[in-house]
Amino acid sequence: MDCVDQQNADITCDLIIIGMGMAGMAAALFAAERHIDTVQIGATGELTFASGMMDLLGVHPLKNAQVVNTPWQGIDRLCLDEPQHPFARLPITSIREAMATVLESLKRWGYPHLADPLNNLAVITPVGTIKPTYAIPHTMARGPSALAEHAPCLLVDFHGLKGFSAQQIASSLGQRWPGLRPQRIAFPDATGELFPERMARALDLAANRAKLVAAIRPHIKDAAVVALPAVLGIHETLQAMQDMEQGLGVPVFEIPTMMPAATGLRLKERFEQHLPAMGIRTRYQQNVLGVRKLADGRWLLNGDHNGDAFEIKARAAVLCSGRFFGKGLHAGRHQIRETIFGLPVAQPRDRTAWHHKELFNCQGHPINRAGIVIDNAFRPVDENGQFMHANLFAAGSILAHQDWVRQKCGSGLAIATAYGAIEACKNLLES
Fold this sequence. Notes:
Order of helices and strands: EHEHHEEEEHEHEHHEHEHEEEEEEEHH
Number of strands: 17
């Protein structure tokens, strides 16, 4: 039964994936490739707020704020130092396969990424700092080499675009990249406050790209490269880059904007477009009201779509509901709880221990490592380390014993643990 066409019909499947963030999308991709009959459900996830960069591991150890240049070696060290980290549940070959699969899919879907096989890339952030990351969208590909070469660069921003200042970036990077020349211009046919999504959708149209080229061209002068905020299209990024570079006569690259950003929408809409074509039955932007186990061991999920209730019965479930922003975890006055299955949450003993007194404590705040503990088959476990359900798996930022923001491993963690959960689920369904 096609649950896109029959949104309010009750359905039965082998697997239900709960979550719309990177972990949920990656899990659905891996499930589709393994021909698992899958339904994916959830409201808007963290993917909307993604920078577009694929972090694998950028900092370890945290106490030294040590930047990781070679992420694969860094993961080996991390797993030795932190054996409870979710990465330690996987062989390095599986993490490599997981990342390669997602990057190959994005390339096939018209949004290729650049990755160095061995080393992290150095990428400029919207506040003018340098961030290590494993893979970047093709729209940002020229940035790391331009930075390394100190190429003369015209750095463009726009009147009305908040949270992105070419002058601030140039000032912050002045000593490292003296060749940055900031320039603020008007975005074609726009006045007042600008929003990255609207700008990017406007630049999906060739006529608007031509107008932008005309606005930038008089400022090129001696620039060997042009940097822009990440607004060069949503669906037509390849053509947008080609048109801009041909029109300006120099290479172009994007710098991420503050969230929410067009980069997250590019990822989200590509997954949403292609996963159904791969056989995933999608219930996007729909609420999970509750889950219980049936006498035969299957999961029964109750959901809601515009006030209409429905049920989904599944042989197995993968929980990718995210942390606090994704509403997978909820912080009350006294404790943190998991919101769908009522799973135990590893967390500090009481609220007074959630945070250190120092905001920028080098160890990070304990609450950032709270989450669901899993075994080597990615099954949530109880306080004694015993798995609770043979047919329930978890992946992504909801997992305990990691601080993905500070470790700069968000996408890698989501993708790798989704791979591990789907592999374990496949083994269960085939047994």
